[in-house]
Design goal:
The complex is a heterodimer of chains A (431) and B (253). By secondary structure, chain A is mainly alpha-helical. Chain A has helices spanning 2-30, 44-57, 60-63, 103-112, 127-130, 135-146, 170-177, 191-201, 207-210, 252-261, 272-279, 286-298, 315-337, 355-358, 363-371, 396-407, 419-426, and strands spanning 77-80, 83-86, 159-160, 228-229, 236-237. Chain B folds into three domains: 3-33; 46-117, Orthogonal Bundle (Cytochrome Bc1 Complex, Chain D, domain 2), CATH 1.10.760.10; 133-252, Cytochrome c-like domain (Cytochrome Bc1 Complex, Chain D, domain 2). Chain B contains 13 helices and no strands.
Chain lengths: 431, 253
């Protein structure tokens, strides 16, 4: 009797652990898909131009190209918490690229996150954003990619840990975090706002970096753009909403300037955002970047992340750190960034009130001091000023002191940074 | 009419004086309408823009006492431009350089190359050298004579008898830290550094043993840099082997 009961409960557990997930995966696999309506191109030249524009807006090339490699031939390693993914060849090569794909296949990838054979795609390919694209834009993008020179370069298998290497399990992930959905215009808003929303949520896939991710790699509230540390890259992407810790104090023109030129009166780009401005955003129409700015500023402020001190210190110790930081600042930083951290925009950004410095995460300030960096060369700022790397000449403790000083001067209230925190970023890959 | 295309055609086809005179006359006329693009004006404030470079490469690119980061001041402009492009596009691997240059345009890299090629700060005396006399002598022979039996060319055959390098693409070899020279030859051997094909330095580096590399770098880094040290305008003889980084016109004349 006892044994039967045991078997019964084991059976129930098995049902829960195996049958239910299997059912969810099967549902994901079999659910009917909106195939959209293929748009026969009336004007092919116009369609190609539209596709090229969208490829830039989505910055497809950045991920689908290795450093110095053939454009769109894939192979760039994307670091994640689950292992390394390698981007695919999206040139029209018949055997290694997407030369055998149809516009329907491409729409399926973009809108439904599924490959040519129906396999679930890993969401490192941001189909959770691209699903918002219209069928017309998907077709234009596809036509453009098909017009590129084919490059024979075989795709490299992802190097993911178990169980993340089991593609089928993405069925569960999709059930939790993904709904195919084209962008639905908000009729209470004007055309400009809706255009901005379409670009930010869709092709621009801003939430891929500017929303924090949960343990399973899904963006937390992707539409809120509340900012977060990018897991694989280890840079902090600040909030993009209209709140005080977001873009409240930025005018539309200032946001547009950052997006088009990489520099602005408030901040300059460094790290991944330099790449995005340099290869993508600088090529967008003024009207489009302005629309993005208008949309972003309209987003409601979230609860700001609390800026907890990373290293708690006794008052005497804090005083010593600040004193050392001030001294280093006076030697190394003051010539460019000024005695009050006011900088000299746009070449030398202000440090007072700079979200990347005083925000809840010190990583950007630490990495800027360690490795320096350049905003991108853009039409509006072709010869950017560079921030020197101080990593080779300063100890971890010195970097911690100067960053602590920046984070707690001129009205900044960011908390102290420890030498251990600095040391962690010395070994983060730069590339 | 497209001015650049016109000039290219002109350069290709000019045969006689008449055509040349006509060309100059026409070019003058066109130049009045549109400034030629061959030499873009230097950018103001380059020294300030280059703070990210001079942090490691020293004021004006003169190197620092740290013993690794090389001097970049006064190197041939095309050589510097090739290196900047190679770092940006990954043919040369050094994470800090790859990172810093990632999003800079060819136009800017050209300006950076020209700026540092035009800097001529004084050279410091060579760093103290611990190599034995035998090692230094072996290095001297490799640098000045090569190893004809193994068809290893002498450094001086391409880098000039002064070792000051040759315009536009061959760098000078004096005034560099031993560790830096060792690292470069090592990088060529294992593929972390590659130049334009034919990558002659890869061939040379692979032909050398680690002991030979160390001997050559020890001797080179022990030499005082003579007054007037600078890249030569041209070599007296053709290069001993084809080199993708150096246009061959002058050598084949």
């Amino acid at each position: 009797m006892k044994r039967t009961r045991l078997l019964k409960s084991l059976g129930a557990i098995a049902a829960l652990l195996i049958v239910l997930p299997a059912a969810v995966i099967a549902w994901q696999w079999l659910r009917p898909e909106d195939r959209g309506m293929a748009n026969p191109a009336v004007d092919r030249a116009r369609q190609l131009a539209q596709g090229q524009y969208l490829a830039r807006a989505g910055n497809c090339m950045a991920c689908h190209t290795t450093r110095g490699g053939a454009q769109y031939a894939g192979g760039r390693a994307i670091a994640s918490s689950f292992g390394t993914l390698y981007t695919s060849n999206i040139t029209p090569d018949k055997s290694t690229g997407i030369g055998q794909w149809s516009a329907d296949d491409f729409w399926r990838a973009l809108h439904h996150g599924r490959g040519k054979e129906g396999q679930f795609l890993y969401p490192a390919f941001p189909y959770t954003s691209y699903t918002g694209l219209s069928r017309e834009d998907s077709d234009a993008l596809f036509s453009y990619l098909q017009s590129l020179p084919p490059v024979a370069r075989a795709n490299q298998a992802h190097a993911l840990r178990f169980p993340y290497d089991q593609r089928m399990l993405l069925g569960l992930w999709r059930a939790l975090y993904f709904t195919p959905q084209s962008y639905q215009p908000d009729t209470r808003q004007n055309a400009q706002w809706n255009r901005g929303a379409y670009l930010v949520q869709g092709a621009g896939h801003c939430s891929a970096c500017h929303s924090a991710r949960n343990r399973l790699g899904a963006s937390i509230e992707p539409l809120a753009l509340a900012g977060g540390v990018i897991p694989g890259l280890q840079w902090y992407a600040p909030p993009l909403h209209g709140g005080a810790d977001g873009l409240r104090d930025w005018s539309d023109e200032e946001i547009a300037a950052l997006l088009k030129t990489g520099v602005s009166p408030h901040a300059v780009t460094l790290g991944p955002m330099s790449e995005i401005v340099g290869r993508s955003l600088q090529y967008l129409d003024d009207a489009d970047v302005t629309a993005m700015a208008v949309y972003l500023k309209s987003l409601p402020a979230g609860a700001p992340e609390s800026s907890t001190p990373l290293a708690s210190a006794e008052p005497a110790e804090a005083e010593r750190i600040m004193k050392q930081g001030k001294q280093l600042y006076g030697t190394l930083c003051v010539d460019c960034h000024g005695g009050k951290g006011q900088g000299s925009a746009p070449d030398y950004p202000p440090l007072a009130g700079n979200r990347a410095i005083a925000g809840p995460h010190a990583v950007n300030a630490i990495r800027a001091v360690l490795n320096g960096g350049f905003p991108p060369s853009t039409a509006g700022n072709p010869y950017p000023f560079g921030m020197p790397p101080f990593g080779p000449q300063l100890t971890d403790q010195e970097v911690a002191a100067v960053v602590s000083y920046l984070r707690n001067s001129w009205g900044n209230q960011g908390g102290l940074v420890s030498a251990a925190e600095v040391n962690r970023y010395r070994s983060v890959p730069l590339d | 009419m497209d001015y650049n295309r016109f000039m290219r055609l002109l350069n290709k086809n000019v045969k006689g004086t008449a055509a040349l005179v006509l060309g100059i006359w026409m070019a003058c006329g066109l130049a009045a309408a549109a400034a030629p693009e061959a030499a873009p004006a230097a950018v103001a404030g380059m020294a300030e823009r280059m703070a990210a470079c001079t942090a490691c490469h020293g004021k004006q690119g003169r190197a620092t006492a740290d013993g690794y980061y090389p001097r970049i001041a006064g190197k041939p402009e095309a050589y510097l431009f090739n290196q900047l492009q190679s770092f940006r596009d990954g043919q040369r691997r050094y994470p800090m350089m790859n990172y810093l240059l990632s999003n800079l345009s060819d136009d800017y890299l050209q300006q950076i190359a020209r700026f540092f090629a035009d800097q001529h700060p004084p050279y410091p005396p060579p760093a103290p050298n611990e190599a034995s006399a035998a090692v230094l002598e072996r290095g001297r022979r490799l640098v000045t004579e090569g190893d004809p039996q193994r068809r290893v060319p002498a450094c001086v055959a391409c880098h000039a008898s002064s070792l000051g390098g040759v315009q536009p693409g061959i760098p000078g070899l004096l005034g560099l830290p031993r560790d830096y020279i060792n690292a470069q030859l090592g990088a060529w051997r294992n593929g972390d550094r590659a130049a334009r094909t034919t990558d002659c330095m890869a061939t040379v580096a692979r032909a050398l043993s680690p002991e030979e590399i160390n001997a050559a770098s020890s001797w080179l880094s022990a030499q005082a840099v003579p007054a007037g040290y600078a890249p030569e305008p041209a070599l007296p003889a053709p290069l001993p082997q084809h080199c993708g980084s150096q246009p061959q016109v002058q050598a084949q004349r």
